[in-house]
Every structure is written in C-alpha cells, then in structure tokens.
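Support request, please re-run this one:
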Amino acid sequence: MVSSQHDKSRKPYNVRTTMGILDKVTRLEKRLQQLAARGDVTPQPVEVRRGLLDEVEEMVQPAGRSRRVFPYNRLTFHVLAADAAQRAALLAVLGGDADMLALVQERLRDADCVIPRDLGVRLRLVKKAGADWQAGKAWHVSGERVEAVSPAPAGTRGEAQSPEHGPLQLAVLKGTATKKVFAVGGERVYVGRQAEVLDKDRRVVRRNHVVFADTDDPVNQTVSRAHAHIRISPSGEYRLFDDRSSYGTRIFRDGETIVLPPGSPRGTRLKVGDEIYFGQARVRVDRAK
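Re-run finished. Output below.
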C-alpha cells in the first residue's frame, strides 16, 4: 500500500516534452545540413560558428579508460566571406583567433576532452572556397600536429652564432606603416596592424610599437592586429615571437627561411641583416644609426 502511494506521488515522465526537444534538435541539424548543401544560401554567422565547433568536436578521439583526446595542436578555420558586409558580420560573431581559441577550449571541455597545452587557432576569412572544401559549404576546418622546436646549440643553422648587442631598428621594405624606420628599444616591442588593439568591449588590450596601417592594401591585410613581438633580454639579446598571427611570421637569413612556431614561448634570436616577414609585409633588421 505504501509503495502504491509512493508511485502515485512521483511525477510522471513527460515523454511528449522530451520528444519535442529532440525534434527541435533534429530540425536544427537538418537546417544546418541544408544550408551547407545549398550554394545559393549564405548561412548566418551563428550557424557558421556552430558548424565550426561541431567539426572540432568530431575530431576528438577516444584514448581508452574513458579518456578523450584532441589529436591536433593547430587548427585553421577558413570561412567564406564574399564581401565586406559578410566579413564584418562574421568578425562581429566569431571575433579573432583568441576568441575562437576560447570557444574551442570551451567545447572540448564540454566534451570531456583533454586540451593540448599548446593549442593554437587561426581564423581566416577568404573570398573563395578552396578546392578541398566540401561542395557548397561556407567553411573548412583543418588540423595539424606541430612538434615543439627543441633548443639548438649555439652556432647551428637558423640561429645567430652570438647575440646581437646594441640598439637595433626595423626598416620597412614592403607594406604601409606609420614610419619607414622603427627603433627597437625597451623590454618588448609589439608589432601589428593598428596602433591599439581593442577587445569586443572596445577596451585597449595592446598597444603596438611597430604599426602597419589598417587599410585595404592586400599586403597590410596579412598583418594581424596582434601579430608578433620582440623581447630584449638584460644581456641585450633580441628574440622574435609570433603571437598566433593569421598569416605567420618568417625570417629570411643567409638564403634560408626560418618559420616561427606560432605561440612558441622560446622565440627566435634575431641577427642584423635578417629580413622578417609579418604575413607578406617585410622589414629588415639594422643597427640603429
């Protein structure tokens, strides 16, 4: 008798409500699939964001004993933005590399996945879909595993044989900047497009010292707002770091190209005569006059 009363007091399982939620989820998934398949419909930025994160979660791999891991430490998001209006709308929702990295980390945490410590994300808005994109899709996600660069002995290829001492300067060779020559001084020198970098709440989060103009110049557009920085040690050694830029940072030295790992805490030592590529923009390292 007691058991019967207890069963009556228990709230009935609402099958209709549960099925209604599942039906809504199914309809939304079909909507995304239809948008991806149709070339004449431009998906909304929020739908693009969801699609990107869904593909990231699909990359998660089981590692045994209920562990889930993410096999890549570099992600590149290519998103179709055919005109300036689409580009502005996408940037307003997706933000920049740092914003997308935070979203990816949140999604991986929700998926109970171990997040790589050196995970990096690049967001690239393009005007034309790549040949390897799924037909009719407005985005493409690719992942790769970049191994950390181990410290090399002094005098090995790609590093200066001795630190550069004394003040240096950067001479702009390609791209439009606020100056032709920038002095390199202080503890850190920040390089990027625009003098000030703002967050989504319009607060200043960084001030660049080497400033490329924020114009429609295709060269300048390859320079990220927070592209790279140079750190000067107390001993006078200059090291260049890529700040997870969209188009990367390279050094051309003695006929060879040195690609800087994005976000690496080690950096690369600079040498007088180096030519540095910030995306397609180029500067030369000189001794200060």
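The longest strand covers residues 74-80. Residues 36-144 form a domain with the hypothetical protein PF0899 fold fold (CATH 3.30.2320).
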